[in-house]
Amino acid sequence: MSMHLRQRWMRRALELAWKAGEGTRPNPRVGAVVVKGGKLQGAGFHRRAGEPHAEVMALRKAGVKAKGADLYVTLEPCSTHGRTPPCTDRIVAAGIRKVIYGAGDVDRRNAGQADRILQRAKIGVTRGVLREECENLNQDYRHWTTRKTPWVILKLGMTMDGYLAVPGKKWVTGEQARAEVQRLRAGCDAILVGAETVRKDNPRLTIRRTFRHYAECRNLDGIQPWRVVVTRSGKLPKGAKLFHDRYSDRTLVYRNKKWSEVLKDLHRRGVSRLLIEGGAEVAQGLVKAGKVNEVVIYLAPILLGVRGKGLPRVEDWESWSWREMISSSAGEDLCLRGKLGGAK
Fold this sequence. Notes:
The chain is an alpha/beta fold and 344 residues long. Helices cover 28% and strands 24% of the residues. The protein contains 10 helices and 13 strands. The chain starts with a helix and ends with a strand.
């Protein structure tokens, strides 16, 4: 089969994988298609942790037509028994002729094992088709698995000149931007703010809407994220909502800890995606420390100029090492989203 056709089927698998959004965490997003005689026989994607993997979904739909077919999958098939059986076993049992996958798995339990198992069963293996696109599909998973720290997303709502507050207004950004932030929260395992945000805003940091990327995918507000507060002094208002609402057991306070210590402990607690929401000092400190992987900025069409004197402000954000930046409208506001280079 030509490389063009292989890429075509792999792109179909990639499209499927993206449907799950953040619902698979801490598992990677994976899509798979079964092809025989140039025709699609079955397709599937991994929906959530604990449910069948993409290969199994595609093989089920293909049924007996899987025998002698080719299987395209965005990630190297798993070969160990976790919450589900090894996909390599199912592939061998289905009588697949050849497996074509995009990215190798970075999980040490699986990395490099599928080739040996499949080839021993006389199944052909081709790796690296659209490798870069397949790796980008799971940048957060790859970071979490290899670096042992969460994928850090910094969210900022600010004026065009970088101020995080506007005199006389409760919110800097509009309703649509705030709704999108709820979706961001739903796609993360923890939300972090600084002590000053708790003192001034007394936030709840909860998910108050239901989100679902695709039918039958994980309901993203099933579990409230950890609420994380970093503080030097430890002086926090005793009456803060974070300590007294029904999710108070999901509140963590880190006093006078280095960023590396905070992130490692959150990883230990199973946090794969961390959303940073509070404070100019926290934002700039994390960026300077090289701990931010992704940035989402909502820019309100407001310029404060000298009126912003004394208000919290994020300076020189335009000079950060932006990569892959995209822009979109969020109602009356502008959303800028991109990765940061040099994240550790």
